[in-house]
Amino acid sequence: MNSTSTLHRSHTIDQMDNEQFDLIVIGGGITGAGIALDAASRGMKVALIEKDDFASGTSSRSTKLIHGGLRYLKQFEIALVREVGQERAIVHRLAPHLVLSEKMLLPLIEGGTFGKFSTSIGLKVYDFLAGVEGDDKRVMLSREETMEKEPLVRKEGLRGSGFYAEYRTDDARLTIELIKMAAQHQALSLNYVKAEGFIYDEQQKVVGVKCKDQNSDRSFEMHSKYIISAAGPWVDKLRKKDNSFGGKRLFLSKGVHLVVSRKRFPLNYAVYFDVPDGRMIFAIPRQRVTYIGTTDTPYDGDINHVVTNSEDEEYLLKAVNNMFPDLQLRSEDVESSWAGLRPLIYEEGKSASEMSRKDEIFESETGLISIAGGKLTGYRKMAQRVVDLVVQRFEKEENKRFKDCHTDKIPFGGGPFNGAEDVETYIKALRLRVKEMGLEEFYADYLVYNYGRQTDAVLQQMTHYKDEPEVALARAEVWFGANNELVLRPLDYFSRRSGRLYFNVDTIEPVLEAVLDDFQQYFDWSDSHRQEELELVRRDMHEARYFEYSKT
Ligand code: FAD
Taking the model in full, what pTM does it have? Predict the structure, then answer.
């Protein structure tokens, strides 16, 4: 298989090098992935490059909610709340195994952010703006009902709660599945290819990108009519390369999440709660863990390596222990963590959490289009807006027409499900199957939420290995990732394709050697290369748990 993957990469680079594109997208986070699918499905010839792995920037480090953003209602961002609220239902319909309905509890505490009356009205407006119907409509719970639903919530000062509907996802899987769907519409996408500079014509209009394949060190050029930079926190760096940095700029705010075992923090429902400093954070149960986040602090460190530190941990543990006083979570309880950067649009005089989450499009004199800000939840609409702009330019400048946006009708994620019930039926059947294959039942949920119906291919491949079931499963996932999801390095698999680094970190060590052996064989690695990759996995595992080595 080595030859297939390596050949596939070099063949893709040859195509990128030789062909003329309608649109180049720089950045393989959720924004770039959404744009690639939107543009390719309208008939454009699209190429997308990502300097690292897909979703390795902010798009694997979010709170992983597809949500309307209740707090934006408080800031009167009505249009934003309406748009993202409606988008939740659309992406749930398109990929119901990846965007799951998640009931959310909002405890109302004496003197807290939300009063009982304002919450009742606020949640009603929230549901109305998002078009929420039936059982999903919010209900207001009494103090007793709240304690019954979530016995861990602080009783002192508790006045009741709001109980309402949101959605949970896996941001990195969402991104990779969109990239795969874009490929089905003939978009060419490649990870580990960096945009190093731009190519201009005599009128100083940008007509191409100078690229470097980080894997083979091969440099090449791509040519295109239009270029969109969807580089997230790196957008200003690319604007500087284009000499078009000026006017509005990005403001980077760091957000951290901590992961603890569900046994230690046994939540029944996701809870959105007050922090003593006036902010609000989430505690979200997810299979065998509960995760907590997030912080919101200005960031001016290395944007290529963002890690949790002890202050972030202290802040989040204090906040949780304040709302769930019986827990008394401690540093030792933290199994894993992740840290990411919000690429916000800077607004004078506002703190990080006050700045708007709206997206913004910048157009430079050279013709480079940059898009930043926004939310995971609104990726489809962001893509539609910026591709509409490109379509208009094509019409005006080339008299060339493309279809209207129709991504709301393109299911993705590997084999469509007919709604959440269909997903549940598939998982139920799978629970028996994984048990028969020697795996714990929870792997059924893990597999379906990651791979959807592609689980069948993974399990089929598993039967080819004679190892212990857990090892055979990991090897089958790596095989699937290398063949179908451009997995090139172990961390692509452990972090962005499977989420093991965050949600099942203890499952990595037992499979690590076998997985590295497969990588070495697939990609012809030397022993020293294998050792380097092993050390990188260990470093990231260590950092996720012990942050910058500060807790050791
Ligand atoms: P990124 O994901 O950062 O992608 C940009 C990509 O561009 C990167 O992968 C980078 O490697 C690549 N790149 C940069 N330079 C180059 C180059 N020169 N050549 C090639 N590639 C390049 N939103 C929600 O809707 N729900 C949430 O629950 C939520 N929670 C959040 C919590 C936190 C802590 C944070 C930080 C954000 C959260 N968000 C949430 C917001 C959401 O995660 C972001 O809006 C979104 O992920 C941004 O995606 P992006 O594609 O624009 O950026």
Answer: 0.96
